[in-house]
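Lab notebook, bench 4. The sequencing result for the construct came back, and we need a structural model before the next group meeting so we can plan mutations. Quick request posted to the team channel:

Model the 3D structure of this chain.
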Amino acid sequence: MIIKATSHARAGLIGNPSDGYFGKTISFIIKNFEASVELWESPELEILSSARDHSCFESLDDLAKDVRQFGYYGGIRLLKATAKRFHDYCRENGIELPAERNFTMRYTSNVPPQVGMAGSSAIITACLRALMSFYGVNIPEPVQANVILSVENEELGIPAGLQDRVIQVYEGVVFMDFSKEVMERQGYGNYERIDPGLLPPLYVAYSQNLSEGTEVFHNDIRGRFKRGEEKVVNAMREWAGLAEQTRDLLLAGRGAEIGALLDRNFDLRREIYEMSPGNIEMVETARRLGATAKFTGSGGAIVGTYDGEAMFAALERELAKQNVAVIKPVLA
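Done. Here's the predicted structure in C-alpha cell form:
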C-alpha cells in the first residue's frame, strides 16, 4: 500500500513579516501548486532522489541553471531532516515506533522555487503527514507547525517563522496571532480559520526569472528589532494591526475594502527593507494597472486584489513582459 500525502504553496495575505516578531498575519493556501510525498513499507529505509536531486547535467550552463533554481542541496535533506525530527518527537513524547518497520519514500513538487511560496516547507509538511499516517501517530495541528519549524530552524539551520507552517498544516485561510504573551503561555499562537468565500478576487504573480527571486539584500531586520530600533518595532506593530483590520473587514463582509491595507503592508516594508529592482517593478506594474500588490513572502511573488476580468487580463499581459506569471489562486 502506498501512502500519499500532499501540501500546498502559500501566500502571506497581510501582516508579514511580523509573524517572526510576535505579530499577527493572515495567510492562504494556493492549491494550484503542491508538494507530495509517497511512502511505502520496504525491507530497508530508503529515500529516493527527485529531479532536483540529480547530479548529471547536459552542460555547465545546465548545472548553473539547476543551482540557481534549486540551490546546492535538493529535497532529500528536507526528507531526512523531517524523518529525524519525527523520530525525536516520538521519543520525547513516549511514542514507541516499531524498529523493524521500514519504508521507502520519494517526493515531487511543482511549487515555483525561490519566490516566497514556501516550497521547502510544503515538502516538509507533506513528509510529516506521510510519516504520521504510516506509523499511526497523531500530532495536534499547532504542534505539527512547531515540529515543521524545528526541522528548518534546528535541523537545517534555515531561518524561518511559524506563518508558513501554520497555514500549510491548517490550509484554507487562517488569521494568526503570535503575540508574545500567547506564545510564551502555550508555545504556539492562536489560529483562527476564515471562510475563503469572504475574500475578494485575488491574483498571485510570481517571477519566472531564476536570478530574481527572494530578496537578496541583507537587511538585518532581526538584529534591528532586538536592538529596539524604533522604526522597525513600530513597523511590526503596524503590520500586526493591518492583519487585525483585514480580519475584521472580512468577517464583516467587507472584503472589497482590504486592498488599501495590502498596499500599505508593502509600502511599510519598503520603508525599512532594501529591495531588488525586479521585485519593486512587479509591484509598481500591478499598481499602475489599478490592482493592489504586496509580497506573498520575502520577494519573488506578489498578491493583491483586482477589479474585473479586464484588469486581470492586463495584469497577465503586462507582467508577462517581465517574465512574471499571473494566476487566480485556488484556495479550497
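Confidence is low (pLDDT under 50) at residues 211-218.
Will bring this to the meeting.
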